[in-house]
Each structure stands twice: as C-alpha cells, then as structure tokens.
Design brief:
Blueprint lengths: L8 H18 L12 E3 L6 E2 L6 H15 L8 H26 L11 E5 L5 E6 L10 H21 L3 H19 L1 H5 L2 H7 L11 H5 E2 L2 E2 L22
Parallel strand pairs: 1-4
Antiparallel strand pairs: 2-3, 3-4, 5-6
Helix pairs in contact: 3-4, 3-5, 4-5
Length: 243
C-alpha cells in the first residue's frame, strides 16, 4: 500500500460495529425503547473516554453538568447521593443493549471500560456508549465479562471520586440489569445460564459469589442508593431497603 493512502480497515471496522449495534437495537423490546440506542459505533464525535473520568477535573465537570440538569448545586448536594443517582442514569443506557445482545442474540458487546467512550445528552445525563471500531469482547463469557471488564472499574471510579461504598453502585447495577432481564423475558434469560447465574436467578452456589447477585434479595436491593437525599428526587419505592 502506498504511504500516501490511508488504510481502509478503520472504516470497515466502524461499519461492522454499526451493523452489530443496529442488530441489537432491532431486538430491544418496546418497553425498553428509551435506551434502544444506548450503544453505538464510535465516529469521532465529542465523547469522553471512560478512562478520562478518572481525572478528578473531568469527573467533576461531568458531574456538574448532570447536577445542573437536575437543578441541583453540586457544591451543596450530598456528593455520594449525586454520584449514585448519576450512576443510575449511566447504567440504564448500558444495560439495555448489553442484556439484549446477551439474552436475545447470545453475544457480548465489546464494552470494556478501557476502550469505551460516553456521550451526554443536553441535560448532562449519560446517554450513549460508543464502541471503538475494531474493539473485541473480552475473554470472559456472558454477563461476567461486563462485570469484570466494565462494572468493576466503574464501581471503583465512583468510590475513588466520592468515597461511596461499592455496594451502593453494585446495587444500582443489579436493580437495573435485573429489570432489563425481566423485560426481555424470564424464560429467555434463564436459557442463558451465565446471565441467570450472575443475577442470582438460580440455586447454584456460584451465584452468591457474584456482586450483582449479592446486591439483591428477592428482587429487592440490600443497600439504600441515597437518591432521596437529593432535593426533588424521590426514593426508589418498594425496592428501597429502608421501607
């Protein structure tokens, strides 16, 4: 190939990533349609690499945009409650495509924390995760791959940035993933043993070792998510362990 010609491989990889994410979106049920496009192929727009959120300045700017959208002052709000509530908006657009791909297509999406970027909406809320062209799913299968390659680094990010207990963020993730799995269909989810095990839907003792399964008991979270500490934000209702 001539040195003056760009390689076509990035374009091909981008096209393949777009095809995969479009296929996943087509299998998202109507009840989860809000987050149908929660994952897309990266095209070089204004997105923030997730690893950049480890920089306190970048994280604080992201959190400030979210707080402004809520009409809350980040300087006066309980920072842990704000981060927990932000994580719920972060996890929703992630969970819907990921679980749809696993349950309905039997394939993982390449969403390792180290290689994924995040777009915000006009209100500063996490809106879409961008898959890097050519990125590959990790070696771990099923939902366990998301737990190890994305959720653990994300939980650690939240802890490092505000001191929040990891079990709070694991609880947020467990509630959202469990809800999405049930919307996709319990028989369909149970047909994917690796997913059902991670969510604690089986009697296998390995369920108790997974942080998602540990975070829920009888579909109710074990640790309060703190969101009701923010002005104008209601508790999570029947899921709240304080009720």
């Amino acid at each position: 190939m001539s040195p003056g010609l760009a390689s076509p491989m990035p374009d091909i990889a981008a096209q393949l990533a777009a095809q995969v994410t479009a296929q996943v979106a087509a299998h998202v049920p109507a009840s989860l349609g809000t987050y149908r496009d929660g994952v897309a192929a990266e095209t070089g727009g204004a997105a923030t690499p997730l690893v950049a959120l480890r920089d306190p300045a970048v994280f604080d700017a992201t959190l400030a945009a979210f707080a402004a959208g809520l009409g809350v002052s980040p300087g006066t709000a309980d920072r842990r409650a704000l981060v927990s509530y932000w994580s719920q908006f972060y996890l929703a657009p992630l969970a819907t495509p990921v679980m749809t791909a696993l349950v309905r297509l039997g394939r993982p999406l390449p969403l390792a924390f180290a290689t994924t970027s995040l777009e915000l909406d006009a209100a500063g809320r996490p809106a879409r995760f961008l898959v890097r062209p050519g990125a590959q799913a990790g070696a771990r299968a099923g939902l366990a791959g998301l737990v190890e390659d994305h959720l653990r680094p994300f939980v650690e990010l939240c802890r490092a940035q505000c001191g929040i207990a990891p079990r709070v963020i694991w609880g947020n993730a467990a509630v959202i993933l469990d809800y999405v799995a049930r919307e996709l269909g319990e028989p369909e989810t149970l047909a994917r043993p690796e997913v059902a095990t991670c969510l604690g839907w089986c009697a296998d003792t390995s369920c108790t070792l997974n942080p998602l399964a540990q975070a829920l008991r009888d579909r109710r979270r074990r640790t309060c998510c703190l969101r009701q500490r923010l002005p104008g934000v209601a508790s999570c209702g029947e899921l709240c362990p304080l009720r």
